[in-house]
From TrEMBL:
Similarity section: Belongs to the UPF0283 family.
UniProt membrane topology term: Multi-pass membrane protein
Annotated Pfam families: DUF697 (PF05128)
InterPro entries cross-referenced by the UniProt entry: DUF697, UPF0283
Organism per entry: Paracoccus aestuarii
PANTHER family hit by this protein: UPF0283 MEMBRANE PROTEIN YCJF
Annotated keywords: Cell inner membrane, Cell membrane, Membrane, Transmembrane, Transmembrane helix
Biological classification of the source: Bacteria, Pseudomonadati, Pseudomonadota, Alphaproteobacteria, Rhodobacterales
Spans traversing the lipid bilayer: 39-57, 69-90, 185-205
Any GO CC annotation of this UniProt entry: plasma membrane
Protein name per its UniProtKB record: TIGR01620 family protein
Amino acid sequence: ANPADAPQIDEPDAPLPQPRTMQMVTRLVGRPPSRLTRLFLNAGGALFAFLLGMAALDFIDRLLMRYPLLGWVAVTLFAVFTLAAIGMALREWRAWRRFARIDALQRQAGAALADEDLDRAKAVTDGLVALYAKRPETEWQRQRLAERRAESFDARALLTLAEAELMAPLDQQARREIEAASRTVAATTALVPLALVDVVAALAANLRMIRRMAEIYGGRAGAVGGWRLARTVMTHLIATGAVAAGDDLIQTVAGGGVLAKLSRRFGEGLVNGALTARVGIAAMEVCRPLPFLAQPRPKVGSLVSRALTGLFSADDRRG
């Protein structure tokens, strides 16, 4: 008998790859600490800072008595350190002021659309112009908005015009950041065999992407502010179940049977890249001063397809 004439044995479908890396990242960032944990961390941090300050002052006092010149050097360094710490705290406060300003614009825009309030829409438009007044790259868009805003006679038309003039260029920048982060996470998951390394790389890529979203749309996230913003985004994703990978997501990104040709590690990288795109879209919605009106909301499939161009061969992408 000819073995070539034997009937083909169909292999059962392999289980779909799971986004373990991104699921771990969202659990690490999005899980809020309990009230007792927050109390412990805050009290511990305050106690550590108090003891460290007292020890430094005691050391400087004894140094002044024994070696006055070195003591004054220590005093100068301590003063510089204190001023730097105050400056960092002020920077974090200013960053949260800007986030609060963007959040207020979001709420006012939603209320103006719901109530069809033209006066409130005008106030939102004025707030947007003021928010981007110090950004030279938006000067031409602000001028066009000022020239055309008199043509709008209802709230939706005015906010749609503001979105088209001010948000559309920023949306393009945000999409490029999402594509870059998705590419990084997908490649790291696929090519790095060490589990903890890919988690750290995915966490860093997502935090950097979220910080860039804030900067693009007018916020300036500091270290603490960026982490809290990331927690807000990740908590939203966990609450909506967006960290689960389903067939629709995989079919959208992979285009059918491509995962059958790739190793399981490449499949996980593909899904992790897609979930990174979801994180980026959520960050856009959190940081964007206006909701999506006339401008299209980014799609995971199109973002990841562009992000992975060149990462896999053309034959693999065709499936």
